Amino acid sequence: MNTRVLSFPLALAFIVAVDAGCGQSPGEPSETPVATSAQSAETNLIGSLSAHEWLLQEFGLIGDEDPVLPDTTVTLRFEPNGGLHGSGGCNGFFAKYELGPDGTPSLRPFASTKMACPPEVMDQDQSFLEAMSRLSGIAVAEDQLTLFYDENERVLVFTGVESKPEAER
């Protein structure tokens, strides 16, 4: 399947434009205030993010990404209430997130466990957690999430698996 991932600002503009123009005759003023459209876009993004548990596939400099180490699982789970948690492959982490005007999540406060793992797993874990603290962009398309960091020069590329309701976890 061919999926095109748009940068979030472009995707947000498209959602707002489509939402503002749905069911409207040409020349007829929009009955939907822009603030409502922007809030709707944020609600849609939060719904898309929280619909999956996200599994990291690769990360690093765009065009030269490294795959996740074998036998490690790096995950993210966005909760609709603003909670974020997961695993860096060794340590669990948790934070609160807020979506910026362009949809990029900012994390506060960020905390993780301090487990000991083999050195290469610890390096991957630390690299992932550091990247999460430097997010600069986001793109979501169906079951793929791309988080950009370091001024959009590097990426964290995730695939989504269906998220279970919180009561079933």
3D structure, described in words:
The chain is built from three helices and nine strands, in the order H-H-E-E-E-E-E-E-H-E-E-E. By secondary structure, it is an alpha+beta fold. Helix 1 (8-21) crosses helix 2 (34-50). The longest helix has 17 residues, at 34-50. The two termini are 30 Å apart. Residues 1-37 have low confidence and may be disordered.
Please outline the helices and strands.
Elements: H1 8-21, H2 34-50, E1 52-61, E2 66-67, E3 75-78, E4 83-87, E5 92-99, E6 105-112, H3 119-132, E7 135-141, E8 144-149, E9 154-162
Antiparallel strand pairs: 1-2, 1-3, 1-9, 3-4, 4-5, 5-6, 7-8, 8-9
Q: What share of the residues does DSSP label as strand, in percent?
A: 25-35%
End-to-end C-alpha gap: 30 Å
Give the proportion of residues in helices.
25-40%
CATH top-level class: Mainly Beta
CATH topology: Lipocalin
Measured on Cα atoms, how large is the radius of gyration?
17 Å
Count of helical regions:
3
Helix and strand element order: HHEEEEEEHEEE
Give the low-confidence spans.
Answer: 1-37
CATH-level-2 architecture = Beta Barrel
| Integer count of domains | 1
Report the major sheet. Answer: 9 strands, antiparallel
Principal-axis shape equals globular
Summary, kept brief:
The protein has 169 residues and is of the alpha+beta class. It has helices at 8-21, 34-50, 119-132, and strands at residues 52-61, 66-67, 75-78, 83-87, 92-99, 105-112, 135-141, 144-149, 154-162. It is 27% helix and 35% strand.
What attributes does this structure have?
alpha+beta, 9-stranded antiparallel β-sheet, Lipocalin, disordered N terminus, 27% helix, 169 residues, globular
